Amino acid sequence: MSSTRELFLSLVSVSIVPLMLAACTETPPGSATAPEHSSSPLEAASGDLPQGNDPVALDPKDFTTKIDSPYFPLEQGTRWTYLETDEKDHELKVVVVVTTRTKKMANGITARVVRDTVTQDGEVVEDTNDWYAQDAEGNVWYMGEDTAEFENGRLSSRHGSFEAGVDGAMPGIIMPAVPETGVSYRQEYYKGQAEDNGEILSTTEMADVPFGHFEDMVLEKNTITIEPDVLEYKLYAKDVGMVLALGISGGGGREELVKVDHAPASAGTGPLGNPNP
User: Is CATH 2.40.360 what the domain over 2-23+50-262 is classified as, yes or no?
Assistant: First the structure.
């Protein structure tokens, strides 16, 4: 772990304050019974979270679309605006909105729809409906995405779209209930198309972004099984969510939070490629 932290420091010290060791319809919450991971309950504190292509037996009644995870809060109407500079120094605007909509997934779980729209010079280049739900223990699960890429205003790709319960696709953890150092998990699994993984490296980091200075942050390492050269770090602030993302290897750039506000009820509810403001 110490070698990983030293590598991170050497790569991003110019971009981030030095790391410190010492930062549709609403579904009511289900019962307090924890869902199962294979034959035993999920226990975030022990790191017993799904890995790779591990099957999971999840009970829909143990899930809610009211997502109040401290490091991944998804209150309806919240809107995050990020500035992203990609590996080619292109500037992109990323707007993430927690919509008023929900979607019942093929695995029976109802998820909250979160709209993620990327624009360049005002033109949509990528538009996605992401689906999230929270279990009774407080783990936030990623249930899939409906995504579209655009070139010159025209749809160019739907690659990466998947839904938990369809064609062998399975959900994963986007934020553990207890994000302790060393906890690892799969974030999504759709064989050959979506095989992302997460690992908590620290819970005591800090960073400066245009939106402000944050401390006691969760530092997450992201890798992709089918793209072994890709490495990204994300930093999450309590009661805010993701504040900073840094592409370390395999492309990617810097994505930093510039604004958080409340969006109108219609925001993010339009068709892909034409989201409502």
Answer: yes
